[in-house]
Amino acid sequence: MGSCQLPEGTPNRNGDECDVVMNLSASQRCEFVKNTPDCASDEGFIKYPVVTFCLFPPNLLPLAITLYVLWLFVLFLVLGLIASDFFCPNLSAISSTLRLTHNVAGVTFLALGNGAPDVFSAMAAFSHPQTAGLAIGALFGYLGLYIAYVLTVIVSAYIYNRQKHQLNGSAQTSGREQGEILPSDSYREIQSASMQAHDDGEYEPLLPYTQSTAQVFLNAINPVDSRTWRRQHWSAKVLKVIKVPVEVLLLLTVPVVDADKEDHNWKRPLNCLHIITGPLVCVLSFQSGKYGLLLIEGEVPVWVLILCIGVFLSGIVFFTTTNERPPRYHFV
Fold first, then answer.
1. Pairing relation of β-strands 295-296 and 300-301?
2. CA proximity to 266, closest of 206, 208, 219
3. Concatenated DSSP letters for 139-201?
4. Left if phi > 0, otherwise alpha if psi is -120 to 50, otherwise beta: which for 47?
5. What are the structural domain ranges in the chain?
6. Burial track 210-244 (b if 16+ CB lie within 10 A, e otherwise)
7. What is the pLDDT of residues 154-209, one digit of tens each?
8. Cβ-based neighbour number of residue 166 at 10 Å
9. Residues paired with 300 in a beta bridge
10. Alpha-carbon distances, residue 77 vs 217, 233, 304 (angstroms)
11. How many CB atoms lie within 10 A of CB 148?
12. What is the rounded CA–CA span in Å between residue 140 and residue 103?
């Protein structure tokens, strides 16, 4: 009772595989994905089969596929954002703290972070017989993308070096015509500084000023730089608008220690908030949130215990530090 019967003559290898849903009539698909265990997945927050066949009418199936393609594009943007703004600075800070060379960090932490998504996705795919072929295809498709990536890097380096030599030659020729020779590096620095001053129309204040705790927090979670926004192309602005909600969410939950900055990216109110939000995100993301909802002694959920511990530690850090200077344990 509650299960769908396949029409007579419909090919069926197992009887419980979710991929036979397309062999059913449009009126049976929603009930089928709801009652078939193979269509249920505990590895994500979005139930794609239910959304596709229960929320969208049958005639809007192409629209659902189009939205999924756009959603995949957004996920790739998020992945690139996480790698560039959150993973790489933290990797640099870890390497500096442990006094590792760039080569050692590249073959250890960078390799681990780069290969972890492929390893875990392959393990998840091989755990189900119907997706094993997808895992093999994904692994070889990773190899194909890597070859394309290497070729892109080689071609880009060639183009960059060629343009660099042309720029140096034109700068030296211009200097000879004026009776003096400007070093290429100095020429580019002067040109870049003049262009930046002309485009920005504003300069950094010469004297530092003390910001309040609220100002430090608001500036720390603002991912838009007003000085560069006006110079960006409209396509870059569109991508930025798409990434802003994700950036704000990541800024509120992921701590970043940047060794290239003078204060190592110490933002006292935001870093204190990270002590609360970071563990909460981890415990509510593990096993699609089911782990965080487990009850301790049948009464207290796990996420409540994590929240209380985070608030306690956050209060200690907040009242024992200042906005101007990071504590000695900031690298943790």
1. antiparallel
2. 219
3. HHHHHHHHHHHHHHHHHHHHHHHHHHHHHHHHHHHHHHHTT----HHHHHHHHHHHHHHHHH-
4. beta
5. 18-55, 126-194
6. eeeeeebbeebbebeeeeeeeeeeeeeeeebebbe
7. 887 788 888 888 777 776 666 565 555 444 444 454 455 454 544 444 444 555 56
8. 10
9. 296
10. 25, 17, 32
11. 10
12. 26
**At 296, is the secondary structure helix, strand, or coil?**
strand
Q: Which two tokens stand for residue 47?
A: 């139930």
DSSP annotation of 300: E
Q: Where are the alpha helices (DSSP H) in 288-329?
A: 302-319
Concatenating the DSSP letter of every residue in 32-78 gives HHHH-GGG--SS-SS-HHHIIIIIS-GGGHHHHHHHHHHHHHHHHHH
Residue type, 203: Y
If 0-12 CB within 10 Å is exposed, 13-18 middle and 19+ buried, where does residue 265 land? buried
- The pTM is what? 0.62
